[in-house]
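Per-residue structure
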Amino acid sequence: MSASHRRLHPAWIIAGILVFATNLRGPFTAISPLLDTIRDTFGMGSSEAGFLITLPLLTFCIVSPFAGLLAREYGLERALFAALIVMAGGIALRSTGPSWALFVGTAVLGGGIAIGNTLLPSLIKRDFPSQITKLTAIYSVTMGVVSAVGSAMVVPLLYAFNWQVSLGAFLVLPIVSALIWLPQLRRHSRPSADTAAPPHGGPIWRSPLAWQVTLFFGINSFVYYAVAAWLPSILVDLGYTQGEAGSLHGTMQLASALPGLLIVPIVQRARDQRGLAVGLALAGLVSLIGLKLFPLIAIVWVSLFGFGIGGAFIVALAFIGLRTSSAQQTASLSGMTQSIGYLMSATGPVLVGLLHDATNDWSTVLMVCMAMCVVLAGVGLGAGRAIHIDTHRPTKQPRLNH
């Protein structure tokens, strides 16, 4: 860590990273157990309801390429603080009641999450270059645990109050995070151009390895958001109550956090990550087959899905740091991965809604996601190679401790 970045104790910086991570998934995915209620309230079809999940993903792909420019102008710390304020505004707006506020607030929330998703890896790369994999895993675990609690919490809050209160409860996360993040704002030395990613083009966009990392992220996100958005509705159609479906959705989110406890030592010991990427993709495939054939033990399949696809998400995030050789490259690859990857994933919830409206069952949906898991495994063979984007030379695995 450079001298200009030592004004805060590293433990406080890590704490700031972790509390920031609580905002990056839970406020977004916890709407899924409420989709049926929201559909009934506003008379929406499945595709319209799916657009509530797609909307922030589209915002991700629009905003992500410009997050690096925001960091260059104002600094990483201030850009991330601004993201928290934007997220708080989005959560507050979508909880006010009208349908327009629900959609606009969801889009605003997505903009804040996009900035955080893009810049947090750069902050870790800059301040903790030897602990990229470890910190990526830890903040991914944090995201998963908070998402699990949120998914399990929203249905009881719905029964006790209404869907607006259920969604509004997440406002506490960015507010508390902003308070903890405030000391970071003292670190306002003139930001380096290293943190700026071009909004489009540039050498990294012509790298085959960069595209493999981006596709691995995008396909994994497609499968995750397509299933996560509609899992409660799928489970209700399979005979589970709305409360049970919400709890199982939370179980899936919790299971997605568990790989973070196991991925770090595997990445450390492995010569590359090809076997790990393929294995996690195939775990997602098996879970979807199991849910289709043996729905009575859904808890097994949603747990396996969360573990497999959640683990692949951690690996995808780690690839951003492991396949680059500087903070500038990390920011560039992060912007490319987030924008293109989330554009791909944005089609998932709407496509699932359209398929369900057309077929009136979930079998076709599950089979499409199974096929995508197979493709994910193939892409993982390329993205998992231990090489850098710039020279394609073998990379050294980062140490997990200073």
In short: Residues 248 and 299 are 6 Å apart (CA to CA). Confidence is low (pLDDT under 50) at residues 1-6, 194-198, 398-402. The chain is about 75% helix and 0% strand. Residues 3-383 form a domain with the Growth Hormone; Chain: A; fold (CATH 1.20.1250.20).
